[in-house]
């Protein structure tokens, strides 16, 4: 399930900012899903949105104040650097981090991400809530609808890859 809340408004309260929600149930226990999400030896096995042909993990320090930084390469030549600072890390159940992303050294987006890992017996429901901040002077084609579609595509891709990776660990 995924939805976008909010509209093209600037300087609005947190609960009215454009928000994308993504949810996926995975066939693995909560502790395993959290581990695969937060350990560098696992993350590049599943973090692969299809719009990028290469992704480099530069930093992964999962603790409050720690950083997660990816460099993503688009086939048409653009480079995206996604840098997140963890605000909250509750082992096996929740991550909160603020992400700033640059496209070719130009600010592309900012978002507060909250990821919940809900135990469902032998399964885990992952819920991602992404609350966007407006970026001044962003190119016109990066509309709210465009950002929603790209964001959800990326999370869907990652969800598929993570499900397959988790299955391979169980085999």
From TrEMBL:
Pfam families: AHSA1 (PF08327). InterPro entries: ASHA1/2-like_C (IPR013538), START-like_dom_sf (IPR023393). This is SRPBCC family protein. Residues 27-166 form the Activator of Hsp90 ATPase homologue 1/2-like C-terminal domain. Belongs to the AHA1 family. It comes from the Bacteria. The lineage of its organism: Bacteria, Pseudomonadati, Pseudomonadota, Betaproteobacteria, Rhodocyclales.
């Amino acid at each position: 399930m995924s939805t976008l809340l909010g509209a093209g408004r600037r300087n609005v309260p947190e609960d009215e900012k454009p928000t994308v929600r993504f949810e996926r149930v995975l066939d693995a226990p909560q502790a395993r899903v959290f581990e695969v999400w937060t350990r560098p030896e696992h993350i590049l096995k599943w973090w692969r949105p299809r719009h990028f042909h290469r992704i480099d993990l530069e930093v992964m320090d999962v603790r409050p104040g720690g950083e997660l930084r990816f460099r993503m390469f688009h086939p048409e030549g653009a480079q995206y650097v996604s840098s997140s600072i963890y605000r909250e890390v509750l082992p096996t159940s929740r991550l909160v981090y603020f992400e700033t992303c640059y496209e070719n050294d130009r600010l592309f987006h900012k978002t507060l991400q909250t990821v919940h890992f809900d135990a469902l017996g032998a399964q885990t429901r992952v819920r991602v809530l992404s609350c966007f901040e407006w970026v001044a002077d962003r190119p016109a084609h990066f509309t709210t609808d465009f950002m929603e579609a790209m964001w959800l595509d990326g999370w869907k891709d990652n969800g598929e890859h993570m499900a397959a990776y988790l299955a391979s660990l169980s085999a």
